[in-house]
Amino acid sequence: MCHLPEAVKNSEVDDLKERAEQYINHALQYACKSWHKHLVNEPTVNRHEIVSALHHFLEKKFLCWLEVLSVLGAVRNAVDALQVALKWLEVCWIF
Questions:
Q1: Global pTM?
Q2: Cβ proximity of 53 and 9 under 8 Å
Q3: In this structure, which long-range contacts are made by residues 53-62, counting pairs with CB atoms below 8 Å and at least 24 apart in sequence?
Q4: Rounded to whole angstroms, how far apart are CA atoms 65 and 45?
Q5: What is the radius of gyration, based on Cα positions, of the chain?
Q6: Residue 44: what pLDDT?
Q7: pLDDT tens-digit series, residues 1-28
Q8: What separation, in Å, do the N-terminal and C-terminal C-alpha atoms of the chain show?
């Protein structure tokens, strides 16, 4: 992603911000940082579909998501998102 050199720390890439702007469009940046905020607003009527999509996302896209957040300097968003998803799942399955 972002045509980064192999096996380097983000801090070792002088033009990381420019690369992120070039290769990670704003829609993807927003989605990676904010999907969990929309999850809590979703009606529980579709909970099976949401759980299935969440499972697919975590199984197939988790590392790509973390990589984007890492390049953006927003890894903390991953912790927040997973906590929100866990709470949503707990509340969702009570009903």
A1: 0.85
A2: no
A3: 54/85, 54/89
A4: 27
A5: 15
A6: 62
A7: 788 888 889 999 999 999 999 999 999 9
A8: 41
